[in-house]
Amino acid sequence: MAFQSEFINIAIADLSDCAANRKAEGARYVQTLAVNTEAGVDLIYTFMAGDKIDNYKIPAVSKDDVVPSISQDFLAAFVWENEIHDLFGITFEGIAIDFGGAFYDLAVKEPMTVISPAQLAAREKAAKIAAAKAAKEQAQAASAPANADAELEAKLAGMDPEKAAKVRAAMEAKAKKEAAAKAAEKDAEMEAKLAAMDPEKAAKVRAAMEAKAKKEAAAAAQQKEGE
User: Fold this and answer.
1) If we measure between CA atoms, which residue out of 92, 106, 77, 97 comes closest to residue 41?
2) Cα–Cα distance, 217 to 183 (Å, whole number)
3) What are the pLDDT digits (tens) for 17-73?
4) Which among 191, 157, 152, 195 has a CA at the least distance from the CA of 174?
5) First to last CA, the chain
6) Which fold has domain 4-114?
7) Which of 4, 42, 75, 104 has the smallest number of Cβ neighbours within 10 A?
8) What is the predicted pLDDT for the residue at 20?
9) Are 53 and 23 in contact, with CB atoms under 8 Å apart?
10) Are 39 and 90 within 8 A, CB to CB?
11) How does 87-97 read in b/e, with b if 16+ C-beta sit within 10 Å?
């Protein structure tokens, strides 16, 4: 018999309903798998019905999260939940048979989350490489407009002066049009936010915006006079 397998991401809040639905459908509980990742612990709940295997994944569960037990619907799950609690430090609420952290007699607390010095060094190195790459990409992105402007100026300098003047005028007109479109879009977004506010609060926000605009206009006029 060929089996079909599917992985489905769900949230912690959806787990209880998921388990109850699978029980009502007559599915068989297979296992709960825990995988230690950089972002936390991935929990994978596996159910089987006929030749279909469904794996429900709750990604990046942290030690601050509380995961509801599914042992009320599938009693066998208490073994996996106690084990994951002891080995990975994940908290389960409402386990039918709860060993309270004494399912295993461990020399090291939460051993599956402990990393070696070599693993820690590798992670730190990878983080530094990623940070350096991001900084380089950011610097390249920041310098790209300046480089583009320099290339354009070089092209304009090599053109007939009259043609260059027309190109500059067209570029300035395009820039003004784009700036006006962005300003209009920003104003529309603000109007939508104000419309959703309490009228009294919206009026106060409008008054503050108008005062700010007047202040900025006055400062711009004063600067222009100084020039």
Assistant:
1) 92
2) 16
3) 999 999 999 999 999 999 999 899 999 999 999 999 999 999 999 999 999 999 999
4) 152
5) 85
6) Beta Polymerase; domain 2 (3.30.460)
7) 4
8) 97
9) no
10) no
11) bbbbebeebee
